[in-house]
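FAQ: What does the model actually see?

It sees only this:
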Amino acid sequence: MSEDEIVDAVSRLGPCRLVVITGGNPAMYDLERLVTLLTLMGKTVHVETQGTIRQGWLRLADLVTISPKANGPQSTIAAASPNLRDAVGNIVGIIGDPDFPLTVNISGVTVDGADVASEAGVLYLDAMGSYSRSRVTDVVTSMGPNAFSIPGGYRSAQLGYGLAQVTAATVTPAQTGTRVLTIDASRVDGYNTAAKVRRVK
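And it is asked to produce this:
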């Protein structure tokens, strides 16, 4: 369907308020015009993506869900030796430098682990900012009686943090000001090790 055909079909649905764009990976396409047209129609636009492709038009959506896709049983993006300070194995990573931290504000995003073992749902590594009106869920892959033996399972060796803020610095960074991460009106559930953690040197 073309964008115009989609807009026409949505307008014929009547009083629907929510339009969800999903299937495959919508971020593979330039959907800026479609999202803009739907927004101008007064629709709330929710986009579901696996998070492997960044598109500028995602900022136009009211809600974005990032959910990695499992490629079989016991799928993992976590490193063999989990370490939050190496920037590997996280669903969303905001990666700064110990001496030059990034400031990133995230709002209206759902991060869903979707049965994929990860070290963290959202990692602020040498970064600060805010996480608001958002959710991190299902970073743990199993809560069953033997979950500890499954990658990403509850009480397994994988970290499985919901939301974490850490530094890679091994010495006190040159820029020593406080790095604040404000969490507001957000929910973290379905995690392994901890919902929220802040580690500094």
